[in-house]
Amino acid sequence: MIINTELEYKGDLFPSQIIAYKHEVDSIDFHTDNNVILRVTVLRDSMIRFRFTAKGYFSNDFSYAIDKTQSHGYNVLEVTEETDHYRIKTSKVYVVVQKHDCRVGIYELDGTTILEDEIGFHWEECYEYGGNIVKMSKTSHDGESFYGLGDKPTNFNLKGKRVENWATDQYAFAKDQEPLYKVVPFYIGLHHNKAYGIFFDNTFRSFFDFSHERKGVTSFWADGGEMNYYFIYGPKMSDVVTTYTHLTGKPELPPLWTLGYQQCKWSYYPEAKVKEITGKFRELQIPCDAIYLDIDYMDGFRCFTWNKEYFPDPKQMVADLAKDGFKTVVIIDPGIKIDKDYSVYQEALEKDYFCKRADGPYMKGKVWPGECNFPDYTNPEVREWWAGLFKELIAEIGVKGVWNDMNEPAVMEVPTKTFPLDVRHNYDGNNCSHRKAHNVYGTQMARATYEGVKRFAYPKRPFVITRSAYSGAQRYTSSWTGDNVATWEHLWVANVQMQRMSISGMGFTGSDIGGFAEQPSAELFARWIQLGVFHPFCRTHSSGHHGEQEPWSFGEEVIDITRKFVELRYQLLPYLYTMFWQYVNDGVPMLKPLVYFDQNDAQTHYRTDEFIFGNQILVCPILEPNALGRRMYLPEGNWYNYWTNELVKGKKELWVATDFDQIPIFVKEGAIIPKYPVQQYVGQIESPELSLDVYFKLGKEKSYVYEDAQDGYDYNKGRYSYKTFALNGKENELFITQHKEGTFETQYQTIKINLKGLPFKIKGIEIDNEKIIFDKDSLILENGLIVDKDFTELHFIGV
């Protein structure tokens, strides 16, 4: 007879005494007498993985986030046993594992504390779902700051915040609202001018607490899975971000046109409306490279179909748009309409590709087409099938990019906004419930889309954009921050989100310029354009329910401001392309918050507005109405005001006056900024001449310019041009030397040199040690100097 059916509530459980350890190659396993195993794996001297299990064995080691193509290695690994602890030493840090409770401490080689466990790893049995809730608590330092975690719409410094990671469709989200669309469980800690990173690679619903619940304690936990995290040491924040980006992967170089301005709305239809919009851009001479088609282009919102009433000949329309320089991008959602006469549905049904509930029936939910089933993108066979569906769109019709939306996954008219937690997933052979697969569903959809677009766009490069993402999604896709609102608060949020995404490994990101929900004022739209052109992904997008949001919807003044700033973006395309090259190759974020730029300056630790665009341009948006200037902080160094060329000393806060058609922009002294002439679209000018804006510095500075064929894969065969320009300024002399890598030859033959801030009059010029004759130095300073593109050294000699 059963007299007690209640399960014992044990509360938090902790590792006990370590009774044995085993060292094999790069890993050390520590076994406790209550069945806990801690596996410490040294991947690099500065990157160490910590993996705990409380069940006496590890599950299959599988991660969607880790880039398996990246190689790692270390120089030193020494393991020693002391009286009360074990010590693991690399060439950068050492780790102490306490024998009596498995607590971990990480230190610099001189003993300085980097990160220590507070109560460390603990867990709570979860009888409702099985498995454990896994938890980690670490000590935080006085004055410690925290950054990262993706698209969180809150203060850039996360000290005192608690955040949640559960990909969620949050229409018209608010500042500080949790959670949002993306899950990037990676943060950077900074104390005593030294930075480290933690990547908690767990796809279950997770939480991070930065001294919000308990002062002096940083904690993170998840509703299931393993306590599996990577520790990354800097001590520079740049080292932490770069190492994390290598770990989770980098994208391939996008085609140059994707860095142009893009226009979108829910929705442009019929065909005549699309052509009216694109024609207006050309008429007003506002550069634009892409036009988007939202869900209304489809037949009843069925993916991979066309509404032939609105778009009777899609292939011809796409070709017509291409002749005028517009690339067509279309939306594809995960919900497949339940319709026996719909071929995509029938094929998925026959092949059993839809997600199922735990007791067998297909997961059913309502989205735009009505009742839908949903492909299981965690199944590699389904991803392969999905990729093949893009043949008609890409190879036959000529669409250039695909936009994945609603892939959190979003489901309408249910309180949770998503799948029930009992839905089953293949998870690449590691079968699981939606509790584990939810946060990666959107990434795996984008991955399958990327494989299809890449296959059928070849030999051109693919372009994919996603709303939902997990760490590592940047290998396949760009992203945007979802359904924001046309408010000044959201302009501030967009600025912070882009900086946060950039240092979270997902650099190719933008916001819906002007706001998706509601209607911006003319002033707000203009200020958003002025910020948005400095974000890697630059797209205006809005809900048609709230009115028109094209640049010409706000009057002549805004048309002129939009043209001015979009033209500036197109001029800076070689600078932006170079930023991307450095991101793709070296893991360097394209937008650099001030704390990243100078972590030793405490004034940068809580700055949210200013950021470095690339390496040498400082941008500070206007974020409130009726402002003809603002206070801002100039970091270390000397900076030229972009509009006036006035040189200003940094490491101070100052007032900067601006007109309505300006925002504060500064250029680092010594910078050489590459520019192209204004084009209405990428490729309009077959061989745009390169100009170099040279900002004088008393001292040395290096700048870089990357160029290739702007699309295709020849750059992987060495057919690229990566130029290093070294500037050396003296009291009466200026030297500029050029070094080139790669075999690509640009079609232009000359470079135009524009000198800024030169402190002397020019009396002589030498190009590769040969003197040249010139009329007046004033003409050179006003109109620039034309030189052969392959010069080795320019020498300006002053009076």
UniProtKB/TrEMBL annotation:
SUPFAM superfamilies: (Trans)glycosidases, Galactose mutarotase-like, Glycosyl hydrolase domain. Keywords: Glycosidase, Hydrolase. InterPro entries: DUF5110, Gal_mutarotase_sf_dom, GH, Glyco_hydro_31_AS, Glyco_hydro_31_C, Glyco_hydro_31_N_dom, Glyco_hydro_31_TIM, Glyco_hydro_b. Residues 38-209 form the Glycoside hydrolase family 31 N-terminal domain. Residues 689-756 form the DUF5110 domain. Residues 587-673 form the Glycosyl hydrolase family 31 C-terminal domain. GO terms for molecular function: hydrolase activity. Residues 251-579 form the Glycoside hydrolase family 31 TIM barrel domain. The keyword Hydrolase applies. Gene3D superfamilies: Glycosidases, glycosyl hydrolase (family 31), Golgi alpha-mannosidase II. Belongs to the glycosyl hydrolase 31 family. PANTHER family: ALPHA-GLUCOSIDASE, HETEROGLYCAN GLUCOSIDASE 1. This is Glycoside hydrolase family 31 protein. It comes from Flavobacterium chungnamense. The lineage of its organism: Bacteria, Pseudomonadati, Bacteroidota, Flavobacteriia, Flavobacteriales.
